[in-house]
Amino acid sequence: MSESKKEVKVVVWDLDNTLWDGTLVEGDEVRLKPGVEEVIRILDSRGILQSVASKNNFDDAMNKLKELKVDDYFIYPEIHWNAKSTSLAAIQKNINVGMDTILFIDDQPFEREEVESVHPDITCIDAAGYRTLPDLPRLNPRFITTDSARRRKMYQDDIKRKVEEEEFEGPAEEFLSSLNMKFVIHEAREEDLKRAEELTVRTNQLNATGKTYDYDELNAFRLSDNYKLIVCELTDRYGSYGKIGLALIELKEKHWHLRLLLMSCRVMARGVGTVVMSYIMQETKKAGKTLLADFKHTGRNRQMYVSYKFGNFKEVSSDDEGHVLFENDLSMIQPFPPYIDVKIM
Amino acid sequence: MELKEKIRKFIEGNLVVFEDEAEFGDSDNIFEMGFVNSLFAMKLVNYIEEDFGIEVANDDLEISNFSSVDRITAFIAEKQSA
């Protein structure tokens, strides 16, 4: 059994004799196990994503899930006759989470062992224990924000976007314009703080310093006259991406110091990181200050480093531990792209 | 295909330009012509590293090395002869 202590982000369900009693392909009149729907609903409300890994005929299984009115809870279902380890690999890739945040539930020891042998970081549990899922510590996230309750819907919106993007036959600009993106930048309010804390803990690739902050620290910054704490939200015609960016600026006498900049990976392709950077540069220039920024190489945030360099930040100093101090002379501020409607509130 | 042509093709295929019909010259500044976001920047750096087998070090990540087709071409040529 895996030793992972990380919060579970995805629960993957087997179907036959796990989600439902009976074996579909043998013609059984399958029925959801008592209480399982409630378990699924509870996990969903906590922002835990759910998927399916089942050896079955895809159409038959999906139709049955639709008939049982639970199909909507599962994203990226893997239903085919190949090894379950390949199903779990596909799910991990599609959702893009760490293997050690996945929990797999199946009634057959063979399947659980097969998955564990290929993916030792995945936690595999016996279907008999499905009722205990909501009580497991790893399935009780520290934060439940409005964004986490909507997490599944946001992934489903993303799937629609990906499909449309693949089917779109025009230039990228046209596609991006057709999304009608609205990007809102505003100073953090108290109700934004839980999500802000969650962002610092969950995001890693697009965090300029790799630092995390807790609710109280963020609240202190929010209330202080010496700091600006900025939150960004993105919406497009498929729905909201939720709060996806955070910036912390220290306001000093001669300069403004960007202490933290992070963006959710989910919006990486939309160019909004550059929008936030441009906004901060514009505001700094308006205030007549110079702009400094902290950066730390974390081994996962090279893209952020490239963003700063291409944003005309120059290294002032650096040390052996990967800390960098940047300065920007504000001579080159990229305009907001035409396909994003940027609102400052 | 010549180095310059490859670079131009890459940029044309990946940069979201401000004006649809705009033609850009080899020495035109791409930061003024289109939206150079972090994704494009990473793709460009990865493309240069993978297709031309060179390493783009942190010190190399100056706008001046990447601001036009000419500049990028010169940067790659310099790295390859080093």
Describe the overall structure.
The complex is a heterodimer of chains A (345) and B (82). Chain A is an alpha/beta fold. Chain A folds into two domains: 10-139, HAD superfamily/HAD-like (Rossmann fold); 146-344, Aminopeptidase (3-Layer(aba) Sandwich), CATH 3.40.630. Chain A has helices at 36-45, 58-67, 84-95, 109-118, 146-149, 151-167, 172-178, 193-202, 215-223, 272-286, 302-310; strands at 10-13, 20-21, 31-32, 49-54, 78-79, 102-106, 123-126, 181-187, 227-236, 239-251, 255-263, 290-296, 313-318, 323-328, 340-344. An eight-stranded mixed sheet of chain A has the order 13-14-12-11-10-9-8-15, sandwiched between helices. Chain A has a five-stranded parallel sheet with strand order 5-4-1-6-7. Chain B has 82 residues and is mostly helical. Chain B has one domain (3-81): Non-ribosomal Peptide Synthetase Peptidyl Carrier Protein, Chain A (Orthogonal Bundle). In chain B, 59% of the residues lie in helices and 5% in strands. Chain B has a two-stranded antiparallel sheet. Chain B starts with a helix and ends with a helix. The model of chain B has no long low-confidence stretch (mean pLDDT 88).
